[in-house]
Amino acid sequence: MIAGDLFDSARPDDNTLASAIAQLRRLKVPAVLLPGNHDRPNPRSGYPYAELRSRCHNVRVFLQPEPAAFEFPGLGLVVYGRAGAHDPRTSPLLGFEKRPGFSFHVIMAHGSYVIPGLTKPERFPIDDKDLAACFADYVALGDWHGCREVRTARPAAWYSGGPEPLKFGEDAGGFVLEVRLGDGPEGVRVVPRRVGEARARAEELDLSGLHGPEDVHAVLAGMKDRTLMLELRLRAVGLEFNGVYPEVGCKVGSGDRQTGPSEGLR
User: Fold this and answer.
1) The domain containing residue 133 runs over which residues?
2) In a designed cystine with 147, which of 129, 175, 191, 200 is the match (CB 3.0 to 4.6 A)?
3) Taking the alpha carbons of 210, 216, 218, 219 in that order, is the dihedral positive or negative?
4) Phi, psi angle pair for 32, to nearest 5°
5) pLDDT digit string (tens) for 90-130?
């Protein structure tokens, strides 16, 4: 299940779309996709999700704003969802009706969980009251970039986040969730699985104690890491330096302007 924002926009370029199709075709199991706020499909053509559905036999996509469901009789499972064209002030969990004759019920929803005093979502709010009232065994949430459990009682509710970090200073990305229904004390067991290789970190580096380009070169070269995306703010007093450092993929100059990004260093 992918609970929204598979793409960063509703008009992914041809290479991005082709890559997504190739990866989805590799799956040996059904895939259920829910559009998000970044990649809401064209209301007439359904692009890009209609394209995925037509070219990947194992993919099912929620394209309509009304509550809908996909049934998987062999698994005793129903997956519910709705595309995000409904009133953004209302919860995406509302309006579903439980289908009889199935053992497991999962709702996919794209929106922001309401944490009193911390978050005030303006679009598609999801609060604990709505979660507690829904009939699902598990709620697969999308919108937040990090992996996070938002409800420990039934129904279990998690954000998987992105399979790689999407922001500097964001450490909770890089996971997918393995959800086992009918397992554990509450009938659901969720296991985060790390799949991401990249790390995104924002740092400030004080160069004031260095004496010249050679020292700058040594410090930056020591930070080289192919899996690290580093947003680096350099601070120095009384140090004049200019240089190009291909080992870490950056160019450093005196003054307020540093240039990048390249190969993991910005």
Assistant:
1) 14-194
2) 175
3) positive
4) -115, 125
5) 889 999 999 999 999 999 999 999 887 777 666 788 988 99
Q: Are residues 209 and 238 in the same domain?
A: yes
3-state secondary structure of 147: coil
Is pTM, for the whole model, over 0.90? Answer: no
Is residue 203 domain-shared with residue 85, that is, in the same domain? no
**Helix/strand/coil for 264:** coil
Tell whether 6 is covered by a domain.
no
Alpha-carbon distance 148 to 12, whole Å? 27
User: CA-CA distance, 102 to 5, in Å (whole number)?
Assistant: 29
Residue 218 and residue 174 share a domain: no
- Reading the block at residue 158, the tokens are 């998690």
- Neighbour tally for 10: CB within 10 Å: 16
Amino acid at the residue 87: D
Residue 31 has φ and ψ, to the nearest 5°, of -125, 135
Q: Distance between CA 250 and CA 216 in Å, rounded?
A: 12
- The 3-state DSSP class for residue 213 equals helix
> Rounded to an integer, what distance in angstroms lies between the CA atom of residue 236 and that of residue 185?
56
CA distances from residue 82 to 28, 90, 122, 149, 184 in whole angstroms, order as listed: 25, 13, 18, 22, 28
**CATH number, residue 138:** 3.60.21.10
Residue type for position 45? S
Asked if the structure places residue 138 within a domain, the reply is: yes
* Phi (first) and psi of residue 145, to 5 degrees: -80, -20
